[in-house]
């Protein structure tokens, strides 16, 4: 029958076109939740400098962890990199990561930004922004202040589904306990100007638009917006004032080698490459992040690394509070 | 020649078993005691999630119906310049993934978006609060715009096929068009709206992209969240089970209404001749339709084009092309497979309206209502279990992705082909049989030819859906096989990447 | 006897439509079946053609058992033709293709030419059914049915859609053709006069 053979033919063509894993010699397989332009360029540079072919598989942090779990018996990925510390605990718990030898690199890093099996690439602080022009003298110093009833209808935040908010609250639970954090979150939610919607940049824009007075967002967005090709975003960024809370939550993007992966040596080389000064400079300049390497200067819009007070945080156990955190969000109605 | 009737029967049974096993994981779960997370979910989450989901599904279906009927009416009743073009363009609306529209419109009305920027540049005073839109409204808006074609297509078909005589009669009796619309078209097109409406409802139920982006707690986001954030399969599957129950209820309701109005189905009449419009009215209608198209799709398309050109330099062309060809190849191949499966299943239902064919039909539709990510999990578990029996590396291959896509979208093709068979009836096949052709022979030489419109329509809908689909691809796609949709969500600078893919 | 039908019974949902029906007919004869609407006339034809199965009964045609309590020959193997009330011409095929549809023999072309001549459709072979008048469509349907020289030809109220003159003319013509080909006919009609006019035997189906 003609139809049947047509079908088989198309299946054949289709299978031929869509080749499975190539069996090449010098490769590196990366599962990454860091999807910025700067990362793509750094990987390209790595490829050309080392001749190692980079195979990039992008996705969201938690989905990639799930995939890594499923592939554990026969790993494909060599490297896992993501933007939030909350993924570290599940990765360690499920024994997905390989031992990592950082040699001398550790000396230039803050103590809590590396472990036996992982290392931070960049840091980002979660701060409060406000409109410098229309609100020149803000009286808020930290999140606890913001939870006070006098700030009713002034707070803009993104959804609780965001991993950044997850880490923020998890950090608070880690330091202050569930009950105190719950009250904090409750106060914040009561003061929301609207139901959370949009991402961090949208919060900033909404502040400038006058829909709220204070927004919670990550530092690198401010810098990134200032360098945006969209003129409107630049204007917004320039109008933002920054408040670093008295105990600022700092999150990390981190990288690790996968246990029993096919190309461990190449993986090691990538990590060393990304921790090198030139790579770290890219993160700071192009993406507005705080590089893991403290010696690299950051965007002028942000406070220098040692100019603000950071909250204590144990990244390896932060993710232990994930479930509690989400339950907390549900309880206080942070959508 | 092999026994076709037996083949379809066995295929139907196998299919039922397959789906049953696939979903049985979920149902065996219900027999186990619930965990703490589930109890938490029920207390705090389930209420909101259910309400949101019902509101969004309900209103989207409702508005999509209105829009679909109205446009179908305009295009069939009247003859005006560009009628065929408009007719075609409305079909095209299906090619716009709802989440693309969601991203776009959110951006468009945002503070730094086109609209507000434009107003500011002209120094027109406005309040930012004017442009604050409840995410649920945005979701309904976006779903309506991208899914109305389902109703548009079936209503148009029924007006053309069956309502011609009635409408002409009414005109002769002096009924005005609005009256014809209300008293004739609206009630008599109910069967069409029902089948189209069901598709809309199922698509909205299973969508993840829009609600996740807009931050609306709904069933699909709750399921994914439980699975990934809570790392809690249990709760995720329980929620999925609830969703499936909800779907079954929905299917039952639609089936019930369908049966009640069975007698209202008009017999096949003469195709409707569209009435020519006076030039004045013609211009009015054309401009109204153009405005609609422009507002709903023209603007996004233009903006996306503009961004395309802007970011042309930063796209890595070879990666992009490989993504493109992967997407296309996958979509076409899987669509064909699905078409074949749906054809066999629908055929069985046609030959023998038995319990088996009934169950097969409903189960197939079930897959369509479940979020892709859930089918993803279930397929993964299924293959992992299978692996214990047959030692093949299946969970890492493209077969898994294809499998999940088939389970998910077979229902869509099935619905369309089944309808096609219903409309066709058995008469031509019987005529061929008494002329000496076996049922199967007649199927190929006669029915298949006459079924072409239904087959093309099924293929197109499935193809478009597959190309648009998002979550499945994210989790199951084989390494080094980046298809298009996932590239969206990956990029925070979504603008750059939005354009070329969605321009497909 | 060329055609024998014994104790045919058919039930639909507990209601008996046909009850212990018997029929015999000679080769080349015309049997007319009359009866009120709903008396099962069309069902009878469908059962004979094989499109539906009887609950009970034996059907023998030309010394071959078409069906009995144990077996049933598939429709397409029975060599029994059926002309539907609405003709059911294949819309996607031309007149020629419609008529030629069932034919498989070697001298197909000659046979079709003969038929076309008989039904006076030689000029219209490239037309599609929708381009033909009612009378033409009727002729195409009949031509298609006899083209394959069926052992038995069943007709379900043929000509009922045509006006009186055309009906009489076509009917007379058709019976001539059937006699020429020596085809046995079973003819369902609601027109009692017509039945008695054309048939060798008239059978009435009662509810």
What would CATH call the class of the largest domain in chain B?
Mainly Alpha
In percent terms, what proportion of residues of chain A is strand?
15-25%
Roughly how many Å apart are the termini of chain A?
A: 56 Å
Level-2 CATH architecture of the largest domain in chain B: Orthogonal Bundle
Which structural class fits the helix and strand makeup of chain A?
A: alpha/beta
Overall number of structural domains of chain A: 2
Number of helices of chain B: 23
Low-confidence stretches of chain A: 16-24
The share of residues in helices of chain A is 40-55%
* Beta-strand percentage range of chain B: under 5%
Q: Indicate the CATH architecture of the largest domain in chain A.
A: 3-Layer(aba) Sandwich
Please state the overall shape of chain B, judged from the principal axes of the Cα atoms: globular
| Mean pLDDT metric of chain A | 88
Largest sheet of chain B: 2 strands, parallel
Apparent shape of chain A? globular
Number of domains of chain B: 2
What does this structure look like?
The complex is a heterotrimer of chains A (335), B (504) and C (207). Chain A is of the alpha/beta class and 335 residues long. In chain A, 42% of the residues lie in helices and 15% in strands. In chain A, strands 1, 2, 3, 4, 5, 6, 7, 8 and 9 form a nine-stranded mixed beta sheet that branches. In chain A, helix 2 links the parallel strand 1 (27-32) and strand 2. Residues 16-24 of chain A have low confidence and may be disordered. Chain B is mainly alpha-helical and 504 residues long. Chain B contains 23 helices and two strands. Chain B is globular, with a radius of gyration of 24 Å. The two termini of chain B are 42 Å apart. Residues 486-504 of chain B have low confidence and may be disordered. Chain C is of the alpha/beta class and 207 residues long. In chain C, the strands form two sheets. A five-stranded parallel beta sheet of chain C has the order 6-7-8-3-9, sandwiched between helices. In chain C, strands 2-1-4-5 form a four-stranded antiparallel beta sheet, covered by helices on one side. In chain C, helix 3 (108-119) packs antiparallel against helix 4 (134-147) and helix 4 packs parallel to helix 5. Chains in contact: A-B, B-C.
